[in-house]
Amino acid sequence: MTKTKKIAMVIAAMMFAPSAFAVEITPYVGLGIVADKAGTSAKRVKFDATKINPENLATIGDAFIPNGGDDMDFDMAFAGEITAGVKIDNVRAELEVALRSASEDDYDIFDGDIAPLFGVPSIPGVELIPTEIETSTKVRHNSYLANVWYDFELSDSNWTPYIGASVGFGVYRQKATVDIDIELNQAAVLPPESMAGLAAILQRMNGEQTVADDTLYRFEWQVGLGAAYNFNENWALDIGYRFNSSNVADEFVYAHEIKIGARYSF
């Protein structure tokens, strides 16, 4: 091979090598709204009247059995989501912050006459002390995640499906309460000897009692899929589904999430 041919090959290699290894890097930011329906393996508080000692009304606290009731059913919660990342060819790496509204589970665990529970003789057809006891668990959950998504580029289409996963941590603020509503005005039908000291004790029991109030930081993960509709090279509509999960207070916590958002690529 002549020296001239060698020089020509080197020049050609220098010209074509960058294109062979070039990658397209595109930074972007996004905003979204997320609706989620949460669930947990934890159970509601159960009210077991057999735990009450009629001779010691303070034992009503023993009648509330944590994690002994029915399945919780949280209402729908919403989140505002902020993302920032880079797209490298078909892979997107991004950081996500989701700030959620509180999701609550409310449930009546007792609704009836509480007088017989304290050894007060009942009167047929009459509720001596009508009482309603409600348990409520409220959870506010914020997420801080690192996401990796893979985009499936479709020829001759504005839609780009994607799939991916995330890891990070969640901040869980949970508050569980028991609300006791006793209609003391009905107790007037009781004989005076039965009312001795009972009204004062019931008055102290009346109202809301906090069972738990904690802020917890937990490892969190999610998987998801979706599709982006590209209006042009800068703006895209992002619609997706996420399954988000963690372990909080030794209980499996999860949420099904639907996201709709907008993404701007620079």
Write the layout of secondary structure elements.
Elements (H helix, E strand, L loop, with lengths): L2 H19 L3 E16 L5 E2 L16 E2 L11 E12 L2 E10 L2 E11 L16 E22 L7 E24 L9 H4 L2 H8 L1 E24 L4 E14 L2 E15 L1
Antiparallel strand pairs: 1-4, 1-11, 2-3, 4-5, 5-7, 6-7, 7-8, 8-9, 9-10, 10-11
Total strands: the figure is 11
N-to-C series of helices and strands = HEEEEEEEEHHEEE
Give the class from helix and strand content and strand pairing.
Answer: mainly beta
Strand order of the largest sheet: 1-4-5-7-8-9-10-11
Share in β-strands: over 45%
- What is the CATH architecture term? Beta Barrel
Biggest sheet architecture = 8 strands, antiparallel, barrel
Approximate helicity band: 10-25%
CATH fold-level assignment:
Porin
Number of contiguous helices: 3
Alpha-carbon Rg, integer = 30 Å
Distance between the termini: 48 Å
Can you identify the CATH class? Mainly Beta
Q: What are the low-pLDDT stretches, counting only 5+ consecutive residues below 50?
A: none
